[in-house]
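Hey, I was hoping to borrow your eyes for a little while. I've been staring at a protein lately and its backbone has me curious. You're getting the sequence in one-letter code plus the fold written as tokens. Would you mind checking whether the tokens look sensible for this chain? Here's the protein in full, and shout if anything looks odd to you:
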Amino acid sequence: MNNAIKITALLFGQARETAGAAQLEIEVASPATVAAAFAALVAAHPKLAAMERSLLFAVNEEYASREQALNDGDRLAVLPPVSGGADDDVIEITREPIDIPGLRARLLAGESGAVVIFDGVARNNPKGRRTRFLEYEGYEAMALKTMTQIAGEVRERWSINRVGIVHRLGRIEITESSVVILITSAHRGVAFEACRYAIDRLKELRTALISAAVTGKIDVREEIA
């Protein structure tokens, strides 16, 4: 293709499932736009066309309109629509210590007979290296969208009452909480299953966002002792 530029397309959620790939290399005639790049994706994966109006786009870690120009080597993220949780769910990013008893009090209501909490804490030996602390940084708006999406997926799969997902950014000392997920439900079985799914899904999406270096990522910096 003459005067073509190469774009790395990063697909998430339903778009990734539809295309059957998390990352695709595409060529688009220059001058190119987000819309033109997405059209190239649709040409290769026609089922993507059905969800075009609900998708969000980001170029090099920033939200982008369909009219935004693209340059050679750009990274185009194709993001799923947000699946909102219930009004009483708690989806937050904080730079303060996570208040687990407070989160429990906010989410627990009389109809619930079970509360399951996952508390992910900073340890002093990630990957076998002695570490003094962790520091998380992220693009908060898109990270919140990802967390809200996970809450929506949990509600679609299990009959639970409320969901809480809180991720902390900034410096986190060893043994402090970096992420807390809380599920309330009438019965313990679904609460355990839903909580396990939520943290596994968060880890999956967070890892993809780190490796892809797109908006919504959570980067981790470790200071080695």
Remarks:
- Residues 90-224 form a domain with the Aldehyde Oxidoreductase; domain 3 fold (CATH 3.90.1170.40).
- Helices lie at 13-19, 34-44, 100-107, 140-157, 188-212.
- The first strand starts at residue 4 and ends at 11.
- Residues 150 and 201 are 7 Å apart (CA to CA).
